[in-house]
Amino acid sequence: MTTTVPRTANSADTRGWSRWAAALILPIGPAAVAVLRYVLPYDTVDDSATMVSKVVAAPGRMSLVLWLGFIAVLTLVPAAYSVGRVTRQRAPRLTMVALLLLIPGYLSLGWLTAEDQFLWSGAKAGMDAGAITRLADAMHPSAAVAGVFFVLGHVLGTILLGIALWRTRVVARWAALAVIVSQPIHFIAAVIIANHPLDLFGWGLQAVGFAAVGWAILKLPNDKWA
Questions:
Q1: Computed from CA positions of residues 52, 58, 61, 63, in that sequence, does the dihedral angle turn out positive or negative?
Q2: Of 5, 49, 105, 220, most Cβ neighbours within 10 A?
Q3: C-beta of residue 120 within 8 angstroms of C-beta of residue 132
Q4: Where are the domains of the chain?
Q5: Residue 160: its pLDDT value, please?
Q6: Contact assessment for residue 162 and residue 177, using Cβ atoms and an 8 Å cutoff
Q7: What is the chain's pLDDT, residue by residue, as a tens digit (226 residues)?
Q8: What's the confidence (pLDDT) of residue 15?
Q9: 191 secondary structure, DSSP code
Q10: CA-to-CA separations, 155 to 50, 123, 159, 177, 191, in angstroms, rounded
Q11: Taking each helix axis from N to C terminus, what angle separates 15-25 and 28-39, rounded to the nearest 10 degrees?
């Protein structure tokens, strides 16, 4: 007669691994964008001709931007979702609105990096700068829509997610505040004064705040990581 040993709940419990995965992923995306914004060869407010000329002059930096953008696209959405997992119990509505803004915004980043890919590819292929500029100006309108989704989504969504962290006290107040102010600083640095070191600082604050959330997740017992 064969005796079957019942499977315990702990044998199938993967929450410990998922907590570690979340903690490791959380700061990667914001940190990647922080470095991306620092090494970006052009300014966000540049016109197409200026952007093209700067990319042609620095293809190596643009290649690094594309790699960092690829890393960000892979990690920002799971990072936002992981933060939402620890704030939704005490701030469900605020978390929901934040994620409804953040996730489409982050997903739109992939569409925006396509334009940078095109600029780098044109420069790498030795195309005439004027031809690259004309093609850049003829980008599909969906790129502009993606830009709106990204700007509104990641700026407003990050602010709301930081407020959710503040209200729920998942992390220390300084970490929640770092997340709240990170994207307004980025917006100022990218759109108003075109300051790449300040942009690095803004996104870096989000990376630090998300790292603090990751540390808080590691300290959670499995039954609190639902």
A1: positive
A2: 105
A3: no
A4: 26-221
A5: 98
A6: yes
A7: 444 444 444 445 678 899 999 999 999 999 999 999 999 999 999 999 999 999 999 999 999 999 999 999 999 999 999 999 999 989 999 999 999 999 999 999 988 888 899 899 999 999 999 999 998 888 889 989 999 999 999 999 999 999 999 999 999 999 999 999 999 999 999 999 999 999 999 999 999 999 999 999 999 888 777 6
A8: 80
A9: I
A10: 26, 31, 6, 14, 12
A11: 20
| Six token digits for residue 38 | 């620092």
**Residue 42 CA: distances (Å) to CA of 50, 67, 84, 113:** 8, 16, 33, 14
Q: Which two structure tokens, joined as six digits, stand for 181?
A: 């102010």
Q: Indicate the residue type of 56.
A: V
Residue type, 141: P
* Placement of tokens 């044998």 in the chain: 11
Place of tokens 């990376």: 207
> How far is residue 62's CA from residue 54's CA, in Å, rounded to a whole number?
9
Q: State the maximum Cα–Cα separation within the chain, in Å, rounded to a whole number.
A: 82
Compute CA 173 distance to the chain's CA centroid, rounded to the nearest angstrom.
21
Compute the residue count for the chain.
Answer: 226
Note the pLDDT of residue 139.
86
CA 74/CA 3 separation, integer angstroms: 46
* Residue 119 in tokens: 């600029």
* Dihedral (CA of 197, 198, 202, 203) sign: negative
